[in-house]
Specification:
This protein is α+β, with helices and mostly antiparallel strands. The chain is 20% helix and 26% strand. The chain contains 6 helices and 16 strands.
């Protein structure tokens, strides 16, 4: 089966040859199997994991099985190219990596390699997760995810995984019920600060609304942005609920400024 059409969308363009999120430095490997955690078991005994991707939670067993089946049909027993994001394994003995493969129905010497992560994101079979290891691919992965997210297909069609618009009725209660990574959209109403952190408040009453916390040492990661200049800006934030209805972020990949497009 062809990877793109079988997942309901076009295959992403061929992978870039150079750059941090490219084929540069990637080495050939052979996939023996795709396990139940979406890790790739390689025929030389190594394990590779898709850094920067979040798959359906275990409670969605039927959906997880369907996505894993498609991924296994594409990759199991096939040669891939693997680019490790770090020189060391993670604490579970896995290599966080970017994975490239040719389309399932077109493997030949002339078949272009494409990013498997981008294909999964474009199909709505995964959501971008802002892992530090995959920071160099954040821009590319977010671009691949955007059409599926905006069209509400795949994982984005599930109410428990859709972005939460904090201006909608019941949004804060919804935030507190969710588990795992949460995607929140809204306008920044005010900015507070302490000696330790800045607080981006998305509600008129910060005690009852959604807040993004950014420590002072991490705020510089967002670039040359004055905290007060963020008031009124519309943003998309993703991360784990910290306390009540707060998310603490540390990197640019966790917050996107989407001014001027209320549909996003």
């Amino acid at each position: 089966m062809a990877a793109g059409p079988s997942w309901g969308g076009p295959l992403p363009p061929p992978a870039e040859e150079t750059g941090e999120c490219s084929l540069e430095g990637a080495a050939p490997a052979t996939v023996a199997a795709v396990d139940e955690d979406f890790e790739l078991l390689l025929d030389d005994g190594r394990r590779a994991v898709f850094a920067g991707l979040e798959f359906p939670p275990r409670e969605m067993g039927e959906l997880r099985d369907a996505i894993r089946g498609r991924l296994s049909s594409w990759l199991a027993g096939r040669d891939i190219f693997l680019g490790a994001f770090a020189s060391t394994l993670d604490r579970w003995g896995r290599a966080p990596a970017r994975i490239f493969a040719s389309p399932a129905d077109g493997e030949s010497a002339s078949s272009p390699l494409t990013s498997v992560a981008a294909a999964l994101l474009a199909a709505g079979d995964a959501r971008f997760r802002p892992d530090p290891a995959a920071a160099v691919c954040a821009k590319a992965y977010l671009a691949a995810e955007a059409p599926a997210r905006e069209a509400g297909i795949g994982l984005w069609s599930r109410p428990e995984l859709r972005p939460i618009d904090v201006s909608s009725p019941g949004a804060i209660e919804d935030l507190k019920r969710r588990k795992g990574m949460i995607v929140v959209v809204g306008a920044i109403r005010s900015v507070g600060e302490t000696r330790r952190a800045f607080y981006l408040n998305f509600g008129d009453k910060w005690r009852d609304g959604f807040t993004v916390v950014i420590s002072r040492r991490n705020f510089a990661n967002l670039g040359q942005i004055g905290p007060r200049s963020l008031v009124g800006r519309r943003a998309r934030v993703r991360g784990l609920i910290d306390t009540g209805s707060r998310i603490e972020i540390a990197t640019p990949a966790e917050i996107e400024f989407i001014d001027g497009d209320a549909s996003r």
